[in-house]
Every structure is written in C-alpha cells, then in structure tokens.
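ok here's the first one, seq then struct tokens
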Amino acid sequence: MNQRIRPLHRLLALAIGSMVFAIFAPTIVQAADPPTLESLADTTTKLQISIDTTWVMLTGFIVFFMQTGFAMLEAGLLRQRGVVNALVENFIDPCITILVWWGVGFGIAFGTSAGGFIGTDTFFLSQLPGADGSYPMGAPGSTAALNTYTLFFFQFAFAATASTITTGSMAGRANFVGDLIYSAIMGAFSYPIIVHWVWNSEGWLAKMGFHDFAGSAVVHTVGGWTAIVGAYLIGPRPGRPAWGTLPPAHNLGLATLGGMILWFGWFGFNPGSTLGTGNTGLIGLVTINTALASGAGALTAIFFQYTRSQKWDLTYCLNGALAGLVGITAGCAFVLPWAAVLIGITGGILIVVGIDLIEAMHIDDPVSAFAVHGINGMMGTIAVGFLGQKELTMNGKAGLLLGGGFDLLGVQILGILAIAVFTFAFAFVMFSGLKAIDKLRVHPKGDEIGIDAY
C-alpha cells in the first residue's frame, strides 16, 4: 500500500513546486537587471579570454610533450652505451628551465624593454593577484589577452625546447654537471634575449617588422647554433666511424616514435602560437601549412638520399620531416599552402646537404641538430622574405617573389644574421668557459667504458 502512495506524493510535490515557480518567477525576472550592451560586451570578452586560455594551455601541454619526442628520437639515434645519459639530460632540462625561466628568463623576454634589447622587470612573476581575487594579465612586452601565468607557461614550453636541441648534438660525451650549467644559462639569458628582440612588442627586431610566427629563428636557430658550437668544442664521440658515414642508429623504432611525437607536438607549437582562437581561419591555415611542409620535407629527403645510396633511409626520412617542420615554423601564418610545400621541399634537400657539410667539417652531431634546426631555422626565416603573402604578413608587405621588393627580405636577413652572430658568440664563450673548468666533456674513463657505465 505504501509503495502505491509514494508516487502520488511525488506528483503532488511536483505540482506544488510548479505552482510556486509560476507565481514567483515573473517577480524574480523583473527584479534582475536587464542586460545592456556593456554587460553583454563584458560577458563576451570574459568568455573569449576563457576560451583562449583553454586553447593556449592545451597547446602548451602539447609543446611540453615534445620533450618526450626529443628523448625518444635521441635514444633511438644514439649508440646504446649513451642512451641512459641522453634520457636523464632530456628529463632534467625542463626541470632546470622552469626555475630559471621563472626567476630571470621570462622577465628578460617579456619585461619592460630597455632600448629594445632586454627586459628589466617581471622577474620571479612579481605581479600579485589583486585584492578582489583578479589575476594579472599579460606582461609589459606582450599584447596577448591572457593572464600572466598562462602566458608564462606557454613560453616556458618553448624555452625548454631550445636547450633540448643542444643536448642532442652533444649527446654521448657531455659532462652532466656541464649540461646542468649550460641549460640554466640558456634558459636564463641567451634564449630570452632573442625572444625579447623578436616577440617583445618593444624589441628592436619586432619594431623593424621582423617576422617569426612560432620560432624558426627564436627557438630553432638559437638551439641549432648553440648545438653546433657545443659539438665542435666538445669533440667527437670515441670510436665513431670514418667521417662521411653516420654512426648506425641504436633503435630506429624509438627514433620513429620520437619523430612522430615531435610532428604531433608541432600541432601545438605552431597553431598554439596564435595565442587565441579569435581567428579560426588563421588556426586552420597554420595547421595545414605545418602538415604540408613536414610531408614534403620527409618525401624529398628520403627520395634525395635514395638517389645517392640506392637505399630507403628511415633516418633521413625522419630528419626530413623535422626539417620541413622547422622551416615552416616562421612563416606558417604568413604564406599560402603552396609556399609551405616549397619550404618543405627545400628543407628536405637542405637536411641531406647539411648533414654532408657537418660531416665534412669533422663535427660529430649525433642527431643532426644543426642541419635540422640551425640550417632550416635560418632557411624558414628567410623564406618569409621571399614567399610572404601581403594579405597575411603583419605589415602588409609581400615577399620578393610575390612582388613585394626587398623590404621584407632585407629585414628577415638582417634579423637572422643578428641572431646567428649573437648566439654563436654567446655559445662560444659559454662552452669555452665550461671547457676551461673541465665541465664540458665527461671524464676520459667515461669515454673508454661508455658514459652510462661511468
């Protein structure tokens, strides 16, 4: 009997509740303030900031995941006797970078500019949340409509990439303490200074109209030049084969996994650099250009190498894909898809020629870091000056091959020369100092028995 009554009780309660709502709801609605254009605009702005923050954080997580890709790529391409050392260096680099980026690097990069060359504040994320619970927005040198902490994290993920590039070129024989020191110096000084020049709104190259959307120059050229200087000063790995013949990879399965992770990571690297979702067409263009350049680079490299060796070489295919990705990073927002394919093809050729060049110079670069990141970082930056579309560039100037004259090309060449010269000089002093205090290369015993066993 009670079981039959309970449904009636529920229906009665529902009916009474509906009557109360019908009686009092109009009064509640009338008591609320009617929406105004100002309130709607404020709500829209807050919603856009919320969406943009979610987008930038998500892509930042993907960029950070690229550290896994670098670790797997290096572990696969190296000899087995140095794999553990490479893994610990790849893991420890972002640990160091986050601390020095928090303390010094972010302020130098995005703080108030001193003459367009270096930031002077915002160290240790010194902005405090407001008394009303609001969080600080942006940074003195950034116009992005993001809170400071979101901007900091996204840019940190980029900073960690630069030092990881260097780790690969010196793998298998670098002193671990030396790795800790140079990673800290890069994250605190050499990398953020270049960021300030290019991505700080008051940076001297930014004011000249230098175009580097996501870091062909800022991240990859800096990482590549630092890498080659380190590889030259540290010397070759013991027992490597004759120059002109790359040492065989330890595990191509790991290398392929690393290459695929890096390709995936670039879909955070480049599209995330929009720093917002307001222009969905731009996000689509950047994504498509990124994929096209990588595919073109991989195919070009593997076919080019086949004409030379009559073998389908997986290592060259992987590096060709990365070369295309590095090359398109500067111009992914400023060129059309056909130009992205052309940049990828150029990258695929340059990676093969670049590896030959480094071997001919008797510099041991185990993962071809300079050929991938240095050479193609410079190529991609300059390519904007040739192929930039006036409807897409920040100053409305077209590249030389599209009728824009030498204006854009001249700025691109000047910028990449300044970045390369500064980075080379800084890296030479830094690594020479480490060599002088015997912290650049592992102890000779480590060379003899293998760095992992030492």
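and now the second one, same deal
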Amino acid sequence: MANVSETTLENTPTWAVATVCFILIVISILIEHLLHLLSKYFKRKRKKSLFEALEKIKSELILLGFTSLLLTVSEKHIANICIPKSVGETLLPCASMTFDYDEEETKCAEQGKISLLSREGVRQLQYFIFYLALYHVISCILTFSLGMAKMRHWASWEAETTTLEYQISYDPRRFQLTHQTSFGKRHLNYWSNNPLLYWPVCLVRQFYKSVSKVDYFTLRHGFIMARFSEGSNFDFQKYIRRALEKDFEVVVGISWWIWIFSVLYIFFNANAFSSHFWLPFIPLMVLLLVGTKLQGIITDMCLDSHDNSLVVRGTLLVKPSDHFFWFGWPKLLLHLISFILFQNSFQLAFFTWSSIRFGIRSCFHHETENIIIRVVMGVLVQILCGYVTLPLYALVTQMGTSMSNVVFTENVIRGIHIWHDKAKKNVALRNPYSQRSTLHTSLETSPSFRFDDAPVSISVDRSLIRS
C-alpha cells in the first residue's frame, strides 16, 4: 500500500464524505427554516422594521460567506504572490517571531521571498470570518433585547400619565417659574452654564439615571404639544418602541466606511503601534461621546426654554429642533452607534479567534491586563450601548424637527397608502392633466404632519387607527 502523508477525498470512504455533507446540509436547512419562520412572524405581527433588520442581517451573513468562499477559491493564488522577506517581516503582531520558510509556497521560496499570505493564513482568516458573523448576530440580538428591556421600564411611566397627579402637574392653568419645575431643578444648576463642568456632568449622567422620569415626561409633553393637540392621549411609549425598532434597522447595517475601519483595526493591531493600550478603548470612547451629546441635548433644550421664558404654564415646554444635534443631523449619532456595535463585535470576534487558534497566552494578548481589558471593554460597551445609549437616542431624537412615520402603526400607514392611491385615481378621472400638480400640492402644503421620509396629509378611517 502506498504511504500517504495526507488523507484526501481520493482515499476517503464515500460514506464518510456523504455523512459529513448530510449533517452540514441538515444544519443549514434548519437555520434557514428558523430564519424563514422568524420573517413570517415579523410579517404577521406587522413588524416591518424588524423584518427589514432581519433581511439586513441575512444579507451581511451572505456577504461574509461569499468572502470566505472567495478566500477558499483564491487560496493558492494568494499564497503564490511573493513579497521580499524584509517587507514580510514588518508590522508583525508580535515583538519577536521565528519563521519557517520551508512551509511557504515553492515558487516564492525559490526566489528567496515569502508569500503575501500563506495558505494556512488564509484558512485562519476564514475561521475569523466565522467568528465575526457569529458575534455580529449575537450582538444584534443582545442590543435589541436590552433596548426592549429599557422600554418596559418606561411603560410604567407612560401609565402614570393617566393619573390625577400627572394632570395636575401639567395643568396649563398653573403658572411656575422655570427653575421651580422638576425639569428645571434637574438641569438648571450651577454647572449648566459652566463649560468646565457641563460636559463632565453630562458624561457621568449616562451611568446613573440616564433618563429620569421627569426627563421622559417633559420630552413626551414637548413632543405631543408640537405634533398633536393639547390634552391628547397619544401613547408615547408605544411610539418610542416603534422608533427603537426603526433605529435598530439602521444599527444592524454595516456601511462601507465601517468596513474600512475594520480593516484599519487589523492593520493597527501590529506590535509596533502598541495597539493593546488604545485600540480596545475606541468603541467605548465613541460611545461615551455619543451618550454625553445626548445628555447635553436634553440640558440644552431646558436652557433654551429657560432663555425664552422665565415663567411657564403648567410645566416647562421644550420645543423640538434639529439645531441641538451635530450639524443639524440627528441620524449622525445613530450611524455612530452602528459603528460602535460592529467594532465591538469585531474586537470580541478577534479576541475569541486568536485565543482559540493561538492560545489565551499568545502574542496577541500575552499579558493578563490585556485579556481583562478586552473582555471588560467588550461586555461594557455591549450593555451600555444596548440598555442606555440606543434607547436614549430613540427618545431624544424625537425632539428633532421632523417626525418619524412610525408615529402610526402599519395598519394606519397601509390605510394612508390606500387613500393616496384612491386620491390619485379620482384626480386622474376628473382632470388627467392636473393629476400631478393638484395631488402633490395637497400633500406638500398640508400643515398637519411632516415625516422624515415624505410630507403627508392624512385622513384615515378610525377603524384603522384602533387596530
């Protein structure tokens, strides 16, 4: 019998190959079926935003899978790209390494060079892609779960808006000085106009009562007064939940610029940059910056209302405006949150992959302090972002100039679309030449509502609203 150093498919029993293929196919079908059931569930519950978020996650998993497939196909070609040894020994992840050039491709070894990326290195990179996909999915699930947990905490506050005590506190016949209101007492302090104390206080508030009851009530009151009539019984908490689902749809997406930062993370992971001292802290620093800005916006709204009037009716009224946000663009903060969550997943995936493949005491994190920092930073960012920052953004961003179309349920939006189609047909039957101008004038000049996506004038059946 020939002495075979490596077992290949040529000398592997067909039953073994068939068994492995069968198991992998069954697992893949089960995962695909579970995702299909989850999509049907979101459709049945009319959770359009969650359905779109799931579709984004599936497309990103396909992208990562396709990347892994390309690496498999081009494994040999990548290994045959030769570079000088002096170049291949620069920006290494470890301070000192020994090289066994006999294992490199014969083509490069004959030229006195080394491969750009060895075949073993390509395989290891494929393992890393698997861990990245796994951590991205886990991060998305945890983020949404923590956000919903925060919303359930706010549900009890929403129930208090129907009590007599709340009605008395917000009675418009009652006059108070601005600084005597509960909202004013919380935000109009000695530090409010002191630049040296203002931002540190906003920074600390993320960790203790990031959204107090008085903040919630005041922002709720300002939103309803700006969008609806006084005394409206609008369920603000359900609206915020739908807004969080809409924000989650954006958060799970991975933009091209986020991929660029991920590649830069791999590049700067070299020992020459001492990356273990600063690289793990980037997601946390950006997260604290976003949270501090959101806390600052709440205080800025209080200061703005105080400057406009020293005496208020009922309670202090804050006015929605985009000028409180950076560059007048509220969604900039949401894109930063998306960057934070993916970078955190990327770092945790990198840590797990390197620990399993090279050992917990490998050159990537041979010091105990480095291991503790990476694990603590990853867990802290995940919890803080999911439970504090994202729900805080969902609340504060409602004080922008535009109002999200999630103010209505899917039934109401579907009713609006039906009404819109009927109106177009009626206008076309009456005067086909004025169809576009008449209908668009009616929609764009209506003062009733104005959404982020499009201006809409609304007349909807009450049965749709109740559903």
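notes on #2: Strands lie at 82-83, 114-115, 175-177, 311-313, 449-450, 455-456. Confidence is low (pLDDT under 50) at residues 1-5, 435-439, 441-467.
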